[in-house]
Amino acid sequence: MSTSNSSSIAIRNRINDEMQAMLDQYLPDRRPMSLDDYDWDQIRPESVDQDFLEAIGFVTLIESNPKAPGGQILSAADRSEAPWLRRFITQTWLPEESMHHVPFKEYLIRAGAYEKTFLDSEIDKVIQRGFDHGEGYTELQAATYGWLQELITWRFYDSIHSYLLSNATTDNPADPVLLKILSDIAKQENFHRHVYLTGARTVLKHAPERKGEVISATAEFLMPGHQMAPEWQLKAPLWSVKFKFSLRRLIHDITRDLVELAGYRGLGQATILYGSRHTIQWYLKPLVTLLNPLSRSYRSPVNYLAGRVIAGTF
Ligand SMILES: [Fe+2]
Ligand SMILES: [Fe+2]
Questions:
Q1: Chain segment 5-20, per-residue pLDDT in tens
Q2: Do residues 270 and 255 touch, judged by C-beta distance below 8 A?
Q3: Measured in angstroms, how far is the CA atom of residue 127 from the centroid of ligand 2?
Q4: How far is the CA of 64 from the centre of ligand 1 (A)?
Q5: Could you read off the pLDDT of 14-70 as tens digits, one per residue?
Q6: pTM summary value
């Protein structure tokens, strides 16, 4: 065995040991949500409007097929020989994510917002469409994708939860069941975000030369809804305005984590690459206004400057 081979195995083992220790600490106490967690007699669908119910319909669909993105992440884990990532997906991520659409769907049917047959047929379409983003990813690219996706999802649930609370009045109090579903799911999404981010951080601690993988996965990032439920995804910008989703806060968090993972140069380069590949997405709009074509090499001063400007702005 060559020296470089045995040293890369040693690095992989160190990353795996650290991540397994973290999973040992958290996974045994976790459990997926259940329909029995909620008092269904307490729902108050009259307290929310049509837009809100439609947004809940959208997340019901997006959450209905975690096996598709989960399969991509498992392939990445195996490809990169990262047993920690396989363990996280099979022991916690999939069991938890597989339950996220269940209380939403129950709520919508009980509220009379959608027929069960309609939701089932929309879910079938989501399953048919599958999910091919991230094909060929390494464990680090998959962890980067997971970190961004869970961060955005967590913030979205958090903002609609706050929207319900801020709209409540004494005569029309917020729906307690909806509040609990949203906060239970948001907590799980936040935990998933934490594991992926810790995974990316741990890989880079032992293999700092791999920053480019974080940058490429960030640059081609797309929310799963674009493929899974494209007609519904079109409404996301409207909902983000109506429910006062804070883009600024989101971009602040992405910026902070990306600087930690890939430096100011990484932040600058990822942003510039992102803008050159995508039509503008509502959740990253302010970043892409800073586009510039002069960023080809990681070490380019343009990347560093762009990174400093973006980090300073958000
Ligand atoms: Fe979820
Ligand atoms: Fe999630």
A1: 888 999 999 999 999 9
A2: no
A3: 17
A4: 9
A5: 999 999 999 999 999 999 999 999 999 999 999 999 999 999 999 999 999 999 999
A6: 0.92
Q: Catalogue all structural domains in the chain, each as residue range(s) with its CATH number.
A: 30-245 (1.10.620.20), 246-314 (no CATH)
CB 281 within 8 A of CB 149: no
Q: What is the 3-state secondary structure (H, E, C) of 287-299?
A: HHCCCCCCCCCCC
At 30 the three-state DSSP class reads coil
Cα of 32 from ligand 1 centre, angstroms? 11
CA 101 to ligand 1 centroid distance, Å: 8
Residue 304 Cα to ligand 2 midpoint, Å, equals 31
Whether the pLDDT of residue 221 is over 80: the answer is: yes
Token pair 């430096």 is found at 263
State pLDDT tens for residues 253-284.
999 999 999 999 999 888 877 776 766 556 65
Tell me the per-residue pLDDT of 142-180, one tens digit each, with 9 for 90 and over. Answer: 999 999 999 999 999 999 999 999 999 999 999 999 999
The ligand with the least distance to the CA atom of 151 is 2
DSSP state of 279: P
